[in-house]
């Protein structure tokens, strides 16, 4: 009964148009009422505890880093470098989009920001070169959702804090799956373009390629510093976020000289605005998480899936299907914050590694960013390219299917996800 009250109150409040954060608090109050007590102090205390976490300091700094990278020209130079090396191949602009998306994912960790930047630069070029605009937008959206999987990832920070999982291990385990997502949509793109009448870009000279690479070198150094520093234990994910923000600011202001002093307030304000939305969601989720535990909802879920408990692969597969369905209705951050405290006790009872599951969980939620009707990233690319949602949905389907296949293959072959952690422990 408590599961029904939790789900129906949450979905009911959202259906009435209530923002997700307030709906989370509302469903918490509904559970409290059902359990026979209503105490505002519990709500306030758990909202405070939900956001009172040192690792969550990484969120505003990674947001700042993303703003500084886009305004400072790092993003544009990465696209220019990819254009110089592979833009002349048939379908080259699509390969450029995926290559740039993977590199940008290792810088900011924000799917929305990466997609907006890629779409603004590449959609006009792809439209002019004769590419199908719907398919191009679908590819760019699918490339953008790699950002939450490849470190540094804001989503992994939220999952790690909510579920009590090592963020550093999550970062390391996300590298290979993120790259496989990129490979999957590259293969789908190669198959899709077929015999389309595409105008290819002229081949660049070696000197032009090297010049473009030199220009983007400052951007390429950052992921090496972050991943290398985390692997070596020189700094925590939170400290890595500070380093990323400061590095991108210095490069943007003093090396590329594209960030002006009078722009700083607007950039910081945008990062603060996005951070405030995320942190309020985290605070509200603290209330529902406490009541989920108090109402014993995880144990009730464990009872429902008890027939699958002895088969880790089958249980993981079933949970991935469940998350995939939830992702069509809920946005990324609420899904992570709501489902993590529900699923974590089930994972521990079944003996499933929470790091391994976390990577698949984040991949699944990332795919949810391009699934209708919510599809936040699809909305972004539609807004930038000025195309209807129906066109973007049609264009994204082959790439979404390819990434979903990769996710379920990783359910069958978990050693692929855990391989970087095994290498790190040696």
From TrEMBL:
Describe the family membership recorded for this protein in Swiss-Prot or TrEMBL: Belongs to the TRAP transporter large permease family.
Record's keyword annotation contains NADP:
no
GO molecular function terms attached to this record: transmembrane transporter activity
Query: Quick check: keyword Protease in the entry?
Result: no
Annotated ranges, domain TRAP C4-dicarboxylate transport system permease DctM subunit: 9-416
Superkingdom of the organism of origin: Bacteria
Membrane protein topology class:
Multi-pass membrane protein
- One Pfam family of this chain: DctM
Tell me the organism.
Answer: Comamonas piscis
Keywords attached to this entry: Cell inner membrane, Cell membrane, Membrane, Transmembrane, Transmembrane helix, Transport
Q: How does it assemble?
A: The complex comprises the extracytoplasmic solute receptor protein and the two transmembrane proteins.
**What protein name does the entry list?**
TRAP transporter large permease protein
Function text: Part of the tripartite ATP-independent periplasmic (TRAP) transport system.
Record localization: Cell inner membrane
Q: Where are the transmembrane segments?
A: 47-66, 78-97, 103-125, 137-159, 171-194, 215-234, 240-259, 271-293, 313-343, 355-375, 395-421
Q: Tell me which GO cellular component terms the UniProt record holds.
A: plasma membrane
């Amino acid at each position: 009964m408590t599961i029904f009250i939790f789900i129906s109150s949450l979905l009911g409040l959202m259906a009435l148009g209530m923002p997700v954060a307030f709906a989370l608090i509302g469903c918490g109050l509904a559970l409290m009422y059902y359990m026979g007590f209503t105490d505002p102090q519990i709500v306030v205390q758990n909202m405070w505890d939900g956001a009172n976490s040192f690792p969550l300091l990484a969120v505003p700094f990674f947001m700042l880093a993303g703003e500084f990278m886009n305004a400072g020209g790092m993003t544009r130079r990465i696209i220019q470098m990819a254009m110089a090396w592979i833009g002349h191949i048939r379908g080259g602009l699509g390969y450029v989009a995926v290559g740039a998306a993977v590199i940008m994912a290792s810088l900011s960790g924000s799917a929305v920001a990466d997609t907006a930047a890629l779409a603004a630069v590449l959609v006009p070029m792809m439209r002019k070169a004769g590419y199908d605009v719907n398919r191009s937008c679908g590819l760019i959206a699918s490339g953008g959702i790699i950002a939450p999987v490849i470190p540094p990832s804001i989503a992994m920070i939220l999952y790690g804090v909510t579920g009590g999982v090592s963020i550093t291990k999550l970062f390391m385990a996300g590298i290979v799956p993120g790259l496989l997502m990129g490979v999957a949509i590259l293969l789908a793109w190669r198959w899709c373009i077929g015999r389309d009448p595409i105008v290819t870009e002229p081949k660049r000279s070696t000197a032009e390629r090297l010049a473009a690479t030199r220009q983007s070198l400052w951007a390429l150094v950052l992921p090496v510093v972050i991943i290398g520093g985390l692997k070596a234990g020189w700094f925590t994910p939170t400290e890595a976020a500070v380093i990323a923000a400061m590095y991108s600011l210095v490069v943007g202001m003093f090396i590329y000289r594209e960030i002006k002093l009078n722009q700083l307030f607007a950039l910081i304000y945008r990062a603060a605005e996005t951070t405030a939305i995320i942190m309020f969601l985290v605070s509200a989720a603290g209330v529902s998480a406490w009541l989920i535990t108090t109402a014993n909802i995880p144990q009730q879920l464990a009872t429902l899936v008890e027939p699958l408990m002895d088969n880790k692969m089958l249980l993981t597969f079933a949970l991935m299907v469940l998350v995939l369905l939830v992702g069509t209705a809920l946005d990324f951050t609420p899904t992570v914050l709501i489902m993590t405290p529900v699923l974590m006790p089930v994972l521990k009872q079944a003996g499933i590694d929470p790091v391994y599951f976390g990577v698949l969980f984040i991949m699944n939620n990332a795919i949810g960013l391009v699934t209708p009707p919510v599809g936040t990233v699809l909305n972004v690319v539609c807004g930038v390219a000025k195309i209807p949602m129906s066109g973007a949905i049609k264009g994204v389907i082959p790439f979404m299917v390819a990434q979903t296949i990769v996710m379920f293959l990783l359910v069958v072959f978990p050693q692929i996800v855990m391989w970087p952690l095994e290498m790190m422990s040696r």
